[in-house]
UniProtKB/TrEMBL annotation:
Coiled coil: none annotated. Keywords: WD repeat. It comes from the Eukaryota. WD repeats lie at residues 125-147. PROSITE patterns: WD_REPEATS_2. This is Uncharacterized protein.
Length: 255
């Protein structure tokens, strides 16, 4: 997309706006999570809204904008808008939802595109939900390629944040309890010539760790710490590093 273009999302309304902030130009119509107007509306968020959206992730490829949606009912969808930033000719975007059998069994808490450094676009993405499970998806077909196993506990440990490195085939999920799960070896699931790939990734569990704040704040349990962001980084070799940020915590944590 043009360097002067900007995509902005609203989780409250379930829409994505398109603008040129350096000139103050806002394109009319929103890309919406229902797949109805999809860029051809009048730009009224009180009309073109989707109240059941729980997660949004944005990406672009050339002149095409891509929006990944997660819903309260466990559904997942992808909106693809060709020539999304064309000021003169509005065109309807393509909206594809996942099949019912591929849905999560709880509200989608987080979604993430698999982005290759230095390249635009992505062929895959991951989602994490309140059912405690993580799914790896084919972006073009919006088809689930792999789903994490259910946990052994009777009480579901919800997935609150996900991260994805498509180059190394690594997926990370941060749980409500504070634990972090890493799955590696998922590259085989992304093979384009396999209809339904069968993979058995290596699973690594990182137990919840305490905060480094003063004792008065550190007395909180790990589950009470609200995770703001989770990043997966391969700085050198094949050993990943995780960076986590928590609300009301002055430290960054590298795992």
């Amino acid at each position: 997309m043009p360097n002067t273009a900007l995509l902005t999302s609203s989780l409250h309304y379930g829409i994505v706006a398109r603008s040129y902030p350096l000139t103050g130009k806002i394109l009319r119509g929103y890309l919406d999570a229902t797949g109805t107007a999809n860029g051809l509306g009048w730009g009224n968020p009180n009309i073109e809204f989707s109240p059941h959206v729980t997660a949004i992730a944005l990406a672009s490829e050339g002149q095409t904008a891509k929006v990944l949606w997660g819903y309260r009912n466990g559904e997942v969808a992808v909106t693809t808008a060709n020539r999304a930033m064309d000021r003169n000719h509005a065109s309807a975007a393509k909206h594809v939802r996942c099949k019912v059998d591929d849905c999560h069994e709880g509200a989608v808490r987080d979604v993430a595109w698999g982005v290759v450094p230095g390249m635009e676009g992505s062929s895959a993405f991951v989602t994490g939900a309140a059912d405690g499970r993580v799914k790896l998806w084919d972006a073009k077909r919006v088809q689930s390629l792999w789903t994490s196993a259910r946990g052994p506990d009777l009480v579901t440990d919800s997935c609150v944040k996900v991260a994805f490195d498509i180059v190394h085939g690594t997926v990370v999920c941060a749980k409500q309890s504070g634990a972090i799960v890493v799955w590696s070896g998922l590259g085989g699931a992304l093979a384009g010539d396999v209809e339904i790939p069968q993979v058995t990734p290596r699973e690594t569990l990182i137990p919840a760790f305490p905060a480094l704040n003063p004792p008065s704040e550190a007395s909180r349990t790990a589950a009470d710490r609200e995770l703001i962001d989770l990043r997966l980084i391969y700085s050198s070799g094949d050993r990943p590093s995780l960076l986590t940020v928590y609300k009301e915590d002055r430290y960054f944590y590298r795992v």
